[in-house]
Amino acid sequence: MSPSGERVIAGEACVAEGADFLAARDAGLARALKVTGPLPLRLRPDGFAELLSAIVSQQVSVASANAIWGRLEAAGLTHEAAIVAASEEGLRAVGLSRQKARYARALAGARIDYDALRELPSDEVIARLVEVKGIGVWTAEIYAKFSLGRADVFAAGDLALQEAARLLYGLEMRPRERALREMAENWRPWRAVAARILWAYYHVEKSREGIR
Questions:
Q1: How far apart are CA 13 and CA 35, in angstroms?
Q2: How far is it, in rounded angstroms, from Cα 77 to Cα 94?
Q3: 8 SS3 class
């Protein structure tokens, strides 16, 4: 449990517990699990670099995000102080768009207390993060899910999750964010595991990664 009393995914056993729960509750997710096999843990460190990485991943393919992140790492531009010191031109030179360069600098200037985020409920974490220019709900939810391990956070605005849901449930159209969020209500308190199932299913069906 987190200090706020929320369930936290701490290891593979937690993911397996959530998957068993979801398979028993939802026939579609049970079908998906039969083809995906064991789910990835997908836990990451928390802190500035992970939020910067999420900004890099916005609205680009996984391959493009990996390439840009590799150039940022090679240039030593994954730390708060380095981003503060870098010019917009310097950030663009390693692959960031003008908009993302500004977002990166806004994040570095926000001076977020990352230790304090660990103590907050997920909705307060998300509310704090979206105050920063360039961090939307998707980015904040990805951070809460993977860097803080929150078990019941679901990034309904994610296009790969929407497409996976369309394929899995035989929908005519990809569900929009609101519709997918409503579907996900049935997956409480393991919505973050449901997301892992859908991303894994997307990978099987599309032969490409849905999330970095």
A1: 19
A2: 9
A3: strand
